[in-house]
Amino acid sequence: MAIIGALIIENELDNSLDKWTKIYSHLKNNKDLTFSFKVDLV
Q: pTM of the full predicted structure?
């Protein structure tokens, strides 16, 4: 249950960051990057 909750939160944060920054949309599509690495790059 905790894993599913974490995935839902990560997905919502991905969507929020995608709307907030233009650069993040390119990082969002790269499945090799972890969420924390994507945030560090932004």
A: 0.54
The two tokens of residue 1 are 């249950």
Structure tokens at 21: 């920054």
Rounded Cα distance, 4 and 29, in Å: 20
Dihedral angle sign, alpha carbons of residues 2, 3, 4, 10? positive
Contacts of 27 (CB under 8 A, 6+ apart): 33, 38, 41, 42
Tell me what pLDDT residue 40 has: 58
Residue 6: CA atoms inside 13 Å, Cβ hemisphere, count?
5
